[in-house]
Amino acid sequence: MVYYLIALIVFLVDQGTKYLIATRLELAEQIPVIKDFFIITSHRNQGAAFGILQGQQWFFFLITVIVVAGIVWYLNKARATRKLLPTALALVLGGAVGNFLDRLLNGEVVDFLMFNFGSYTFPIFNVADSCIVVGVALIILDTLRDMKSGDEITEVKETKEVKEGNE
């Protein structure tokens, strides 16, 4: 249950920050936070990460429904024996649902975090995007950790099978 709470918190923070940006800033308005390096801005994105696949709303709806269903299924399966993986999945789940709701209601996602590295501007993103990226990084870390200690994975599976057989 705690993992769904994490996903809910991610979703609420994401939606709250997007609401503030959409209602308080004009489109393309900018507020420098750290000179030209970090700027809060009001931007809309009809595509995926980094602005790819612009205008492909039905594709995003379909993929998001499949991904969310898969995450919920795997989260329920992994939460009994793992700690890091369910947390990572909860971050991805909250972010995916946050961006999905934007696309469903508005046909676009509100982005507002802008970073400049000299003359290069990193693609503008939001809280949901951040949580998805952190969640995916933690999934990769969990996978690498499991690959390194393969014996422990077998023990967990065997223990679970023995426990289920005794019930």
Q: How would you portray this structure in words?
A:
- The chain has 167 residues and is of the alpha+beta class.
- Helices cover 64% and strands 14% of the residues.
- It has helices at residues 2-24, 57-78, 84-106, 127-148, 150-166; strands at residues 30-34, 38-45, 109-117, 120-121.
- Helix 3 (84-106) packs antiparallel against helix 4.
Which H/E pattern describes the elements?
HEEHHEEHH
Number of strands: 4
Class by SSE composition: alpha+beta
Count of alpha and pi helical runs: 5
- Rg, nearest Å: 19 Å
Helix content: 55-70%
Q: Report the biggest beta sheet as strand number plus sense, adding barrel if it closes.
A: 4 strands, antiparallel
Chain-averaged pLDDT: 88
Form type: globular
Could you give the order of strands across the largest sheet?
Answer: 1-2-3-4
**Low confidence ranges:** none
Distance between the termini: 23 Å
Estimate the strand proportion.
5-15%
Give a concise summary.
With 167 residues, this protein is of the alpha+beta class. The chain is built from five helices and four strands.
Protein topology:
Blueprint: H1 2-24, E1 30-34, E2 38-45, H2 57-78, H3 84-106, E3 109-117, E4 120-121, H4 127-148, H5 150-166
Antiparallel strand pairs: 1-2, 2-3, 3-4
